[in-house]
Design brief:
Layout (H helix, E strand, L loop, with lengths): L2 H9 L5 E2 H11 L8 H13 L3 E9 L2 E8 L1 H28 L9
Antiparallel strand pairs: 1-3, 2-3
Helix pairs in contact: 1-2
């Protein structure tokens, strides 16, 4: 799962959101590391919809434009849960390895 897809799914956990709402939530969740462009967002959303992980919740007119709200499906929640577990296990393995291979500090010398 790509990082943008991961954060889009996470952004939809608590409520349906429209495109700009998703973009803002992804920026917040990632502490600014992931900043989606609208074109990228809709490309990823199309794929997530096609995979059954996200679905259209509703459409509303806002200032003469149609806003589409998307929501997470049960399948999307399962996929996000599995990916979160996978990433946590990867981080744990890397952390163990880093800890085991750090040079011992020379305490009391100086």
């Amino acid at each position: 799962m790509t990082e943008p897809a991961f954060f889009i799914l996470a952004a939809l956990i608590d409520a349906p959101r429209h495109g700009y709402g998703i973009v803002g939530e992804v920026t917040d969740l990632s502490a600014g590391r992931v900043q989606l462009k609208i074109g990228t967002l809709y490309g990823v959303l199309d794929r997530l919809v096609g995979d059954g992980l996200v679905e259209l919740d509703r459409e509303e007119s806002f200032q003469g434009r149609l806003r589409r709200y998307y929501r997470l499906t049960d399948r999307g929640l399962d996929a996000l849960t599995a990916e979160t577990t996978r990433q946590a296990a990867n981080a744990e393995a890397a952390t163990r390895r880093l800890t085991a291979h750090r040079p011992a500090t020379a305490g009391g010398l100086g």
